[in-house]
Amino acid sequence: MKRPTMQDIARRAGVTKAAVSFALNGRPGVSEPTRRRILAIADELGWQPSSAARALSDGRSGSFGLVIDRPARTLGLEPFFMQLISGIQAELARDTTPLLLAMAEDQAAEIALYRGWWARRLVDGVFVVDLQVTDARVPVLEDLGMPAVVLGAPLGTGSLPAVWSDDAAAVATVVRHLAGLGHRRIARVAGPGHLRHTAIRTTAFERITGGLGIDGRTLEADYSGERGAAATVELLSAEPAARPTAILYDNDVMALSGLTAARGLGLAVPADLSLVAWEDSALCELVAPSLTALHRDICGYGAQAARRLREAAGGAAVPDVEDPPSSLTLRGSTGPAPDAGGRAFR
Asked: Residue ranges of region Disordered (predicted)?
């Protein structure tokens, strides 16, 4: 069945196409009874305005875009992005705004998508994720005049508003908790070093461990289970006196693989080794012991970003917005350090 048109509504209502246009767009030119009858017929036929026609008339598409530049093999496993997109979509559904989602192989491809979307009036603005330490997207979006909201710390964001959570404070929460349990050798398995939030976490980790006199070490990985496991094995292959007694992972997938790797080396969690995951998810509760994790409302984070982008696309000046801080959900994967009164570290 073909999509209903304004001409179909006009034919059913016995009026001109111009009268239908006046009624549907809330403009004068038709009587109130006629307007109500046209609107009722449009609803009955399931008529929806054409985004292309709307873009031609007022320059707006009624859609927002999100481009993700990550390997599909890691993205498909990460609950974080699924929750983030769910939160964005839940907010956009309030006024039936579509979300155009695309994958890109690198920043050059992502920028090409932005230019194409903006030139063809396919989106009214975009969400920018995974800001890099040296990021080419920000100046391009500023030059285009394209409304955008960065999901990440307001560093290197230029004039673009940011919705962010304090990663440095989250690192401090974890390290201080582990230090309180007697851990003096704490490692971190990080995400890719070129990402801004990874750099923020690394700087905070080095500052806090150094300030507490703790031996801290960071190994870079890529959020995948394979690299998380490999980094864990490398850390635990050190001489006993240099092995970490606790590890913080930059996502839940790497933490799960780290748990498996540690067990493969004959270590018990948490008697020999404590583990903490960044970004709590259902996965953290599906293993034994369940994983202690940093928790925040990721769906709410996405919804907040969607509200800010809607405002920016409407022409409002949008300030940076800080999300509520992460809290540490304590579960079975953390306990006293083995060299602080617990079992001897093998």
From this structure: 315-346
